[in-house]
Amino acid sequence: MREHTTTNRVLLALLGLVLLGGGLLVLAGGADIYRRLRLTPPGGWPLTTPHNVLIPGADQIRWTVQDWWWLSAIAALTLLMLLALWWLLSQPRRRHSRRLSVGHAPRGTVTVNDHALRDALTTDLDTLPGVRRARARFLGPPTRPRARIGLVLNPGSTPGHVLEDLRDAAERARQSAGWDRLPTDVRLGVARHGPHRAE
């Protein structure tokens, strides 16, 4: 599962639980469930009977006449909007699958989904010694694609050896697809060291 997908699901689950809990508390107060079922409402919760409101009128007047109230309200809403916008922009854009031509002669050419080739190359790269995580994509026209590869290396890995193995993996992908050439852009990163415990 991708990191963005996991983060989104966790955040949406937490937000959903908060909204569900708040909604149930409001419903319990509005439907007078506390009195009917002889339950004790949460301490300090204002909505315990159908006649209560979330913010009493006296508190509304007291807060709105304070100088800091409107500034705080506007700042909080602005921060919430910026966080929502940041979350939206940080989502990976869904890329539509493309078709890549595999083979030379027109009658022998096969058109395949680039996801299949990408996944095959990524799996091959993930098995290379010293590679912690790999990601491959195909760009460019279907008949003359180029590969863009991102690798995260284990701490202490030798980039030279990894690049040699990567060249072999890219060559295997090129040969299996029957392309004359496959230009490859590579981006390397190194995973962070875990915390070391001193004795």
TrEMBL record:
TM spans (from-to): 68-89
Which terms are listed as keywords in the entry? Answer: Membrane, Transmembrane, Transmembrane helix
**Protein name per UniProt:** Alkaline shock response membrane anchor protein AmaP
Q: Taxonomy-wise, where does this protein's organism fall, top ranks first? A: Bacteria, Bacillati, Actinomycetota, Actinomycetes, Kitasatosporales
